[in-house]
Design goal:
α9 crosses α11 and α12 packs across α13. Helices cover 35% and strands 23% of the residues. The strands form 2 sheets. Strands 6, 7, 8, 9, 10, 11, 12, 13 and 14 form a 9-stranded parallel β-sheet that branches. Strands 1, 2, 3, 4, 5, 15, 16 and 17 form an 8-stranded mixed β-sheet that branches. It has 388 residues and is α/β, with parallel strands linked by helices. β1 and β2 form a beta hairpin. It is globular. Bound molecules: zinc ion. The site of zinc ion has 5 residues, from loops.
Length: 388
């Protein structure tokens, strides 16, 4: 058993309701988990000590929504959108062709690069979806490759109907042979419930089939229109309804009285120049809110959780404390995890050290690389070099 004491913590933002925020604090890591935390003066002895010189320590961010298994580049589509072309669900198909043609090794290289970016952005747990294969072979490859890097893998065969394929036949494939091929490699079943993608009945069929195959439901809901996605998420006790950009008052009430997390993805609204979700109404109604990156090649190609936090504060009127909670505890709840997302004795020692005295700087200094160190399961996983 080895132990490490992080000491000289200027501000320890535990996200644990019992401890709240501690100043001049220390935190003991024992065998990969958090053993103790409290005032520096009361810190227990440890095998080694790391002095943090007044820096702020947070739980590692939990990114509960990302699409990292793909090939190809859609920078030109982004540039066209910035001079006036609208975002539609159909752009996904251009990534599908490149992904089907890519080798496992090419997909693995891209995935590892993006996972490295997430880590450098302070993310210690991420979810990763398939959804750019849209045939059984490529969807299975996608969930298998994602599973090499994370346990939070979502089967998203129901991303869009591929070009030239009959809708009803495709939904049958997604609920049948494709699901059977992918389920052993996934934890979650996801669906893009949206005009231009899958309607409420099709989405229900996909999620119900996934449940029967042992997967847990989550979905893309109410991104472009106030459709039935949120209603369906609550009906099925989905872990999370993601996007929530266009909500009716009844959707907000339904989320607030459920165990379904409202996962907001402001980097998408930023990158598609769309209206931001009404986080204030969700929070004021008592809904649990998560923030995630939705990193994907089409609607928002960013791995920056700090920028998502800055946007949530600046554009969605979340307080910095609410945004930090959403990016840590909120993400953990959206993945139905109770071992990550907060700094509590017994939780996994996943933490982020900021080169700043407070997490307020995440929103106060947007775009500035403030992540100094990232620890995962009690070990240093990433450190900013002097050259960066
Ligand atoms: Zn998504």
């Amino acid at each position: 058993m080895t132990s490490t004491l992080l000491t000289g913590i200027g501000l320890l933002a535990t996200q644990d309701p019992e401890f709240g925020e501690l100043t001049d604090a220390a935190l003991l890591i024992s065998d990969g988990t958090i053993g103790w935390l409290g005032p520096r003066a009361q810190a227990p002895a440890a095998d080694r000590a790391v002095e943090l010189d007044g820096r702020c320590v947070l739980p590692g961010f939990v990114d509960s929504h990302a699409h990292l298994v793909f090939a190809g580049d859609r920078a030109a589509e982004f540039a066209a959108r910035m001079i006036g072309q609208p975002y539609t669900a159909g752009g996904i198909r251009s990534t599908v062709q490149a992904t089907r043609q890519a080798t496992d090794q090419q997909l693995r290289t891209n995935l590892a690069r993006l996972a490295g970016e997430l880590l450098a952005a302070g993310v210690t747990t991420f979810e990763c979806k398939s959804g750019y294969g849209l045939d059984t072979e490529t969807e299975q490859r996608s969930v298998r490759l994602a599973g090499e890097l994370t346990g939070e893998v979502s089967y998203l065969g129901a991303h869009v109907v591929p070009a030239g394929v009959d809708r009803a036949e495709y939904v049958e494939l997604v609920c049948g042979p494709m699901l059977q091929a992918c389920a052993p490699h996934a934890k979650w079943v996801d669906v893009f419930c949206e005009q231009g993608a899958f309607d409420e009945d099709e989405s229900r069929a996909v999620l119900t089939a996934g449940l029967a195959a042992g997967l847990l439901p989550r979905l893309h809901a109410n991104q472009l229109t106030a459709g039935g996605g949120v209603r369906l998420a609550v009906e099925l006790d989905a872990a999370s309804a993601d996007h929530c950009t266009y909500l009716r008052p009844s959707d907000i009430e339904a989320l607030a009285s459920s165990n379904t997390v409202a996962t907001l993805l402001p980097l998408v609204e930023f990158s598609t120049r769309s209206p931001y979700p009404d986080a204030r109404s969700l929070l004021d109604a008592g809904a649990t809110v998560a923030l995630a990156t939705d990193c994907n090649p089409g609607s928002g190609f960013s791995t920056s959780m700090p920028l998502a936090i800055a946007l949530a504060v600046r554009e969605m009127r979340m307080s910095p404390a609410e945004a930090l909670y959403a990016a840590t505890v909120g993400g953990a709840k959206a993945l139905r995890r109770n071992d990550i997302g907060q700094l509590t004795a017994g939780y996994r020692a996943d933490l982020t050290v900021l080169d700043a005295p407070s997490y307020l700087h995440l929103a106060y200094r947007p775009g500035v690389p403030l992540i100094q160190q990232v620890w995962r399961a009690g070990e240093p996983a990433w450190t900013r070099s002097a050259l960066q």
